[in-house]
Amino acid sequence: MSDDFILDTDDLQRRMDGAMANLKTEFASLRTGRASGSMLEPIMVDAYGTKTPINQVGTVNVPEPRMVTINVWDKGLVGKVEKAIRESGLGINPQLNGTIIMLPIPELNEERRRELTKVAGQYAEHGRVSIRNIRRDGMDQIKKAKSDGMSEDDQKFWESEVQEMTDKMIKVVDASLETKQEEIMQV
């Protein structure tokens, strides 16, 4: 029975990739002093009785490096979109022009840049923890198979496979963090 044990490494890899995708989304929401449509992704608007992402109530554009515009499709939602942006904590002051909301991106000062690098570090640590939790799940499957009679050689093989996947993903997280911190500190 134990000879038939095959760890679903594809599932573990898919879950680790999901943790990495989540980290990239969190990084995209951090302001770097440059305009980006992705910085609005976490903001939800109370539209039609439900929380809706901004990109589903209007068109998000980046016409110039320090400006994001949102062309709201329903005039009745303009005020709600503006309110959601003000309450989001992005530190951006929306300006209305009919159904178009303009978001001028202010220059970041040195102190705010340092704060954002710390926040990026926290996001990266959450990503590492998620990856380690997935590793633990894989190791638990291996331990269970070991108690069901798996040979020690097989156990060592699968444990090294899981550890190798984990180490590789942690390196990707660290590289992404370094890149994001450099991007934030760039003036």
From TrEMBL:
Protein's cellular compartments: Cytoplasm
Entry's Gene Ontology cellular component terms: cytosol
Record-given protein name: Ribosome-recycling factor
Family: Belongs to the RRF family.
HAMAP family xrefs: RRF
InterPro entries in UniProt: Ribosome_recyc_fac, Ribosome_recyc_fac_dom, RRF_sf
Biological process according to GO: cytoplasmic translational termination
Chief place of localization: cytoplasm
Lineage: superkingdom: Bacteria
Domain Ribosome recycling factor: 23-185
